Amino acid sequence: MTERDQLAAEYALGLLEGEELLGARGLMASDPAFAGQVAFWESRLAPLLDDIAGAQPDESLWARISAQIDAVPGGEVVSLKARVRFWQRAAAGAAIAATGAVALLVVQPQSPGLQSPGTVSPTMAQRPLVASIPIGDTPLRLGVTYLPDRQEMLVSASGLSADGVHDHELWLVPPEGELRSLGVVRPGEEARVRLDPELAGLIRDGIPMVLTREPLGGKPAGQSAGPVVAEGAFRTI
Predict the structure, then answer these.
(1) Is 150 inside a domain boundary?
(2) Cα 200 from Cα 194, distance rounded (Å)
(3) How far is CA 130 from CA 47, 63, 146, 156, 200, in A?
(4) Banded model confidence at residue 236, pLDDT cuts 50, 70, 90
(5) Which residue of 10, 51, 67, 73 is 20 to 30 Å from 24, comparing CA positions?
(6) Do residue 101 and residue 160 come from a single domain?
(7) Is residue 231 part of a domain?
(8) 46 shares its domain with 143
(9) Looking at the domain assignment, is residue 101 inside a domain?
């Protein structure tokens, strides 16, 4: 199994987080071959869930978990999360391997140098850029994916919530000149934003971004941008 197969399978299982998830979303939107791999794994792995019966955890379970977390130092909690993540992937890997072994019985491998008509080679397509922007001291992150071939930006703010008083605006920080607005972030949503060619032409690997707090509707005309609450940078995947 190639690394792209593994990535597609883990995306289908919902195991990806952070930049891995953003990168996979970018590939899903820009690379038909990768989207096909995800569809393949979704169709093979989904039936595995049919044999799992529903279960209702005991009401005291969360109280016991909370008590144990409070009793363990913070560093150990991080370690525990890492171990949980490891076992999630190990279990998923076993399912993927088993499913893949069956698939090999019925699917002929494609020659490395050949592709189906109309398929875009990953080396030929413009590679997406991603940014995972931490929001202050919280575990929340703003996920941004830029698709150069479409001049489109995907902004995931699914973990953010509106306060009814402020909006947050995302800005590109060019090496020269003023900040360039990438739009007002919509809390709790995933938005697709079409960029004008001039602004899109400024986006490249390593270019920084900032998120500012503004009045409702974004920065008022003629005024300076509000205080910076988060910052990050685009990275090519």
Answers:
(1) yes
(2) 9
(3) 32, 38, 6, 11, 14
(4) confident
(5) 51
(6) no
(7) yes
(8) no
(9) yes
Count the residues in the chain.
Answer: 237
Provide the CATH number for the domain around residue 200: 2.60.40
pTM of the model: 0.52
Question: What is the domain extent for residue 59?
Answer: 3-106
CA 52, CA 208: separation in Å to the nearest integer? 45
Is 86 inside any structural domain?
yes
- The average confidence (pLDDT) of the chain is 74
| CA 169 to chain CA centroid, nearest Å | 20
Tokens representing 141?
Answer: 């992150």
What is the layout of strands, in order, in the sheet containing 208-215?
180-185, 166-172, 208-215, 228-233
3-class DSSP string for 121-186: CCCCCCCCEEEEEECCCCCCEEEEEEECCCCEEEEECCCCCCCCCEEEEEEECCCCCCCEEEEEEC
Both 173 and 227 in a single domain? yes
Tell me, what's the pLDDT at 211? Answer: 92
Q: Are 98 and 24 members of one domain?
A: yes
- Identify the sign of the CA torsion 102, 105, 107, 110: positive
